[in-house]
Amino acid sequence: METLWFVLIAVLWLGYLFLEGFDFGVGMLLPVLGRDNTERRVMINTIGPVWDGNEVWLIVAIGATFAAFPGWYAALLSAAYLPLTLFLIALIGRGVAFDYRGKVDNPRWRKAWDSTIVAGSWIATLCVGLLISTTVLGLPIDANGDRVGSPFAAIRLDTVIGALAFAGYALVHGAVFTALKTEGEIRERARRVAITLAPVALLPLVALLAIVAGLWAAVVVAILGLAMWRLVADRDGQSFALMGLAIAATVAILFGSLYPNVLPSTLNDAWSLTVANTASSPYTLKVMTWVAAFGTPAVLVYQGWTYWVFRKRIGVRHIPAAH
Amino acid sequence: MEVLELARWQFGITTVYHFLMVPLTIGLSLLVAAMQTAWVRTGDERYYKMTKFWGKLLLINFAMGVVTGIVQEFQFGMAWSAYSRFVGDVFGAPLAMEGIVAFFVESTFLGLWIFGWDKLPKKAHLACAWAFSLATMASAYFILAANSWMQHPVGIVMDEGRPRLTSIWAVLTNNTVLAAFPHTIAGAFAVAGAFLVGIAAWHLYRRSQDESVWRGSLKLGTWVGVVAFGALSISGDLQGKLMFEQQPMKMAAAEALCHTEQPASFSVFAIGDVTRPDCENVKSITVPALLSFLAHNDFSSEVKGIQDLVPMYQEKYGEFYPVDERLGELSGKPIDYVPALPVTYWGFRLMIGFGAVSAGLGVFMLWLTRRNRTPTGWWFPALGLAGIAAPFLANSAGWIFTEMGRQPFVVVPNPSGVDGVWMFTAQAVSNSTPGEILTSLIALTAVYSVLAVVEFHLIRKYVRGGIPGVLPQKTDDGALAFAY
């Protein structure tokens, strides 16, 4: 049962990284791919109806961790306090920015919100990377699960590589998504940017996987290579699907090598948090399993339906004049 | 300041702020869904315009509610990790359920509603409005179930020093949440009602076009406000009776009732120093025997006062905090079982007072605009707009009373049920440095302040724009009906 929930939480993170990964990427690339206001609006509108639903995957991943592994939730969140504060502020900023950006017709207003979207997306994705690599690589925690040492203990060379890993992935993933969802010049630009950036931007991800799982990194390298090959071949959809497969493989490798730990202690192996010593009671896990068994398929159906409703590519010609 | 105080200020500020957006979102989203239903059923253009106008304001507010809500999900673990470990087996479940059952529905169908005007059949689009507005209510239920468990722990046994969940059903049907839910939802409708009344009055005064929209909105807002006040009174009375049983100290603190009385009188207003648990120098205007009735439905029953409750609490839950370095300066010190009396006493009165003002004002506005009249004085819209603040203040005061009134506990002991399950707030906080909490406290407060200005500015802009500001413009072929 504990293992099931460990897998389920990994799946929730996978959903989050795959879905919000591209909307982070779109935000990060806003000034690069969108040369003028209309083009930037095209980009924002590719994620407009869905970004909020994507973000709920994070909320549920965190909530499920609280319910199923309270010790993990408490230790990780309190130890990474300052990075998480930054993360929350970034999410707050970019969230309201999407909604408020177009509500006042004034270039300075738009510029301020554009900067918020770009900065918020970069910071948030870096923080997500830091959080995930921290839980996989471990923290200096004591027997009680409390952090020993400075508030910046989560920031080390390996976790910084982890932060860059997910930022780099989001960057390429967002460009591929933009190519898939737009038409005309933006699409061409997005494809070019994805192909050009990929070798550099995806390097930290490969490095992180190599640190954690050695040669298993090759699996993800191969999938990413295929994704870029399909993009060069003008098959955006296949490329996007392969990017999804790459993050699935990444999550599987990272969480697979973490198990049965959930947050290793870098001070003493005996203090590491594990699925066994942080899990809720069997009854709570059973209740949550029923909720997840009925809830999650429904979520997949109606979120899938949303993507179907908004499946059409959009371009400059679809953007109405003002608000 | 110590970590505990900083963390409490942070929780208070972020939660009260979040709860400014939440009730407006809950109340308004259901009203907008109802307006859209009226439009779909009758085809009357007036309802379409109402849906569009109030829907726009709803969305501006919704965005803020969503982003400030994310903080809530994280801060239990960040700043209250000892609490999270202690209650995790019980408390995490309703939170996770809220995410799976409510937040996914809310966010997904809201996106469909905003962008789907020209993409979905009319009825499917309407169904999206109902889906997200009902999901906001579902989410309120789960989070109130979690909060109610802290006020009245049920469905658990004590196991190796921690409460272990034995019945999720007991947690979800806790009598505390069954009373708190209607009370909170009615409070949300009171906010939405006053919002409609105030803004509609301003447009009537301005002689804005689409007069029928504003008259309809004012009438709807008033009736919603009046019904909400009735529901608030009934559910509030139920809550009060439960509180006398479950948290006698909180109710005594609400009244600043120092000595046990039989029959006990209800204090309407006090002059003097209510901060002292010995009640010297306090003169109070009272209604005889009313408190006895509120407590037990019996005008002659006894109500326990603070001075008699303190020894009872000391005997049951201890006189001193344990000696533990994590308790900081409270380690080994006597436990103060009396909540901050000015906060509880005045919080309780402000809640009731502002709630009554809000409903009364609505009725007065309806009377002023009877038979298509519109007062011409500036005071008419001023009264309406100022009235919007009343239910907001009532909600905040009510929550501040509820949460401050349960101090020094974070999980209040259940006097009738599970033995040994309680937690002092001082034990709940994370092992953080004060600098960490201070940083996030300052940063979040700063961001929230900026956003408050921005939201106010946008709401004002769209209120002034009236109906023309929210109707879609004629677009070229192929353009989206709505785009960011």
UniProtKB/TrEMBL annotation, chain A:
Main localization, broad class: membrane
GO CC annotation terms, alphabetical: cytochrome complex; plasma membrane
Keyword presence, Heme: yes
GO biological process: aerobic electron transport chain
Name this polypeptide is given: Cytochrome d ubiquinol oxidase subunit II
Transmembrane segments: 6-33, 54-73, 79-97, 117-139, 159-180, 192-209, 215-233, 240-259, 287-310
Alphabetized InterPro entries for the sequence: Cyt-d_oxidase_su2
Membrane topology, as annotated: Multi-pass membrane protein
TrEMBL record, chain B:
Subcellular location per the Swiss-Prot or TrEMBL entry: Cell membrane
UniProt GO molecular function: electron transfer activity; heme binding; metal ion binding; oxidoreductase activity, acting on diphenols and related substances as donors, oxygen as acceptor
Transmembrane region(s): 20-41, 53-71, 91-115, 127-150, 185-205, 217-235, 346-368, 380-401, 437-459
Domain of life: Bacteria
Keyword presence, Cell membrane: yes
Any GO CC annotation of this UniProt entry: plasma membrane
Biological process according to GO: aerobic electron transport chain
Pfam families (UniProt xref): Cyt_bd_oxida_I (PF01654)
Membrane topology: Multi-pass membrane protein
InterPro entries: Cyt-d_ubiquinol_oxidase_su_1
Similarity annotation: Belongs to the cytochrome ubiquinol oxidase subunit 1 family.
PANTHER family found in the cross-reference section: CYTOCHROME BD UBIQUINOL OXIDASE SUBUNIT 1 (PTHR30365:SF15), CYTOCHROME D UBIQUINOL OXIDASE (PTHR30365)
Listed name of the protein: Cytochrome d ubiquinol oxidase subunit I
